[in-house]
Design a protein that fits this description.
Blueprint lengths: L13 E5 L7 E7 L2 E10 L13 E8 L11 H4 L4 H15 L4 H4 L3 E10 L4 H23 L11 E9 L2 E4 L3 H6 L2 E8 L4 E8 L6 H26 L1
Parallel strand pairs: 4-5
Antiparallel strand pairs: 1-2, 2-3, 3-5, 6-7, 6-8, 8-9
Helix pairs in contact: 2-4, 4-6
Length: 237
């Protein structure tokens, strides 16, 4: 039995509220159980310097946690003068994941920055950031299309992410913090809406895992992604 009482393939309750920030071109608040992340998208007409004159657009991301997103207060990284390695790794993952769902030629020479701020953390913050970040990106692109700034939709597919792992010897989906902190194997799966793999991060935390177990986790991930994509569609309807 999982600590939450969920069955092995059961996701936490998912909700996505759009339009939560007045000034951002796209925004949402995604809740995956007790993990809550505020996601916003900002459009800049100029691409990064390394893309000048290439005709290509860019999607990037920044990620952070509020001091009391966890059960003890964390110092703001700005107060420490630098981002942690974890923060840098997560925001690069978010950016890579979202770019995989975008036709950068159709986007044109502009940059869209996705900001993901964790309000409350209970495991899976990077996955929630990717899933909610895609909704914010979709809303920002919708504004570009509506204004005529874009004539071709650059978004080619949904992008969502879910954690899976082996807890107490059983493969499970959508780990909350008590499960994540004790999982023998921990993984994050980023997929498109059509089940194309974008990125898989897996590691043995306390015990090695077999190829068969990895396949079971991928099956669980595909089911979880289907639920997340359905939530994205419902939020945008």
């Amino acid at each position: 039995m999982r600590p939450s009482g969920r069955n092995l393939s059961q996701m936490r309750p998912i909700s996505i509220e759009t339009g939560v920030m007045r000034h951002a071109e796209g925004s949402c608040l995604i809740r995956c159980g007790d993990t809550h992340v505020l996601c916003s998208a900002s459009i800049e007409d100029n691409p990064p310097r390394f893309l000048k004159g290439t005709g290509l657009g860019w999607v990037t991301a920044e990620y952070g946690m509020l001091p009391r997103a966890t059960n003890t207060r964390n110092r703001r990284e700005a107060a420490q003068g630098k981002q942690s390695g974890r923060t840098q790794e997560i925001q690069r993952l978010i950016g890579r994941s979202l770019r995989a769902g975008v036709d950068r030629v159709a986007l044109g020479e502009r940059q869209i920055t996705i900001d993901c701020d964790v309000i409350q953390a209970d495991g899976g913050t990077r996955c929630a950031s990717i899933t909610g970040g895609w909704v914010a990106l979709r809303l920002a692109v919708n504004k570009l299309l509506a204004s005529g700034a874009l004539t071709t939709d650059p978004i080619v597919d949904h992008v969502a992410a879910v954690s899976c792992g082996i807890y107490a010897g059983q493969p499970i989906v959508d780990l909350d913090y008590p499960e994540d902190s004790e999982a023998g194997t921990d993984g994050n799966f980023v997929l498109t809406g059509s089940n194309r793999l974008i990125e898989v991060q897996m590691s043995a935390e306390g015990a090695t895992f077999s190829r068969d177990e990895m396949s079971k986790l991928l099956d669980l991930a595909e089911g979880g992604i289907a639920e997340l994509v359905a939530a994205q569609k419902a939020a945008l309807a």
